[in-house]
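Example 457.
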Amino acid sequence: MAASRGSIHGEWSGRLMFVLAAIGSAVGLGNIWKFPYLAGQHGGGVFVLIYLAAVAVIGVPIMIAEIMIGRRGRGSPINSLRTLAVAEGRSARWGWLGGMGVATGFLILSYYSVIGGWTVAYALRTASGTFAQASSEAVSAAFNAFVGSPAALASWHTAFTLMTMFVVARGVRGGLERAARYMVPALFFILLLLVGFAAASGSFADGFTFLFAPDFARVSGAAILAALGQAFFSLSLGMGAIMAYGAYLPRNVSIAPAALQVAVADTVVALLAGLAIFPVIFANGLDPSVQSVALAFIALPLAFGQMPGGTVFGTLFFVLLVFAAWTSAISIIEPAVAHLVERWGMTRRRASLWAGAGVWLLGLGSVLSFNRWSEYTWFGRTFFEVVDFATSNVMLPLGGLLIALYAGWVMRREASADELALSPAGYATWRNVIRYLTPFAMLLVLLQVSGALRWLG
Ligand code: PHE
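Predicted structure in complex with phenylalanine:
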């Protein structure tokens, strides 16, 4: 690969912008309430420890692999995987792995943008004081009426899809980079304000204990596998989002330290989100172990509504969710847009239009699954739940397994060593982990999902 060759899609203006954009991708709906919720369910501090190990053992090595493949291939994940495989004398069919990522992205964004729409709607509702002093019944009723209305959900889903595609259409520098430049720092700032609010007016000690006190009786196979799966989703791995972002990384940036920074930032946000949410829940005597959707859209509006300053801080919480979801959404669809540009010679605008239209249409299925189609289930799951389950529990881990095998076994040592430019010991560690440990761990996740490991509990 010629050192000077860039990507036809553009390039980040530097190391910092790549790191911010990748953090924007990683920090999403998954961090802000799913992580705290899972931690609470699976033994608090113990889960947090297992999660940290999962980020280190699977997350960071795969993130390094994705960025490396992207930067060496310089194209959409489909093209990068194909051209690098051919260069190694392997099958061009490795491009299909990128194709699976593009399909996974379509599926994820279709429901992600429905929930993204809720966050926008709730930011506006909270700001207008809808939940101030509202009763528990009123907040629940408002949520049920909202998700019960196909028109309301479809409108907000449309709005969120448009917001996403608007950014993507503007390209790497003018769109993705600009969004990350403002929204990611704002996100950290808001989160710190919320933690401050929780410390000042919530039951901080109770929240802290709930999240961090290790309850070793709750360590189980299920907790370990939940931590592995969550680490993976939260770091945006397994579908080529980070690979696409890696394709726009300038040659002179070291990959491993950047990946480490993204992983640390993502983890810090997840932990801080727990410290912002649980003290507020406990201060209002609410149940912290409710389902994740209800936690964010029922318990939190209710809790904030009872507190002085709650309208302002409640609104900030939903604005935080909007920023988190938005900067993730643009990365979920980027591989598809890059592919349409490469394969069909479309302009970025046209590619964004088509990708957005596809996502929008598919998302209507999720919209309807909360109301008209709520009775139609498949193995007890609605359309929305099927898509969520299939992508996060099957397609992403499978993609991660194949990416690890590709980076460790398809790419030759010379190629990956050249791209990573690590110390000999650092490189040897990464290579052994990506060849053996990571595939093994991903296989465990897939087996657990398929029910083969049910005995683990
Ligand atoms: N990491 C994002 C979150 O935590 C979701 C995501 C998954 C983004 C896959 C990109 C790719 O919400």
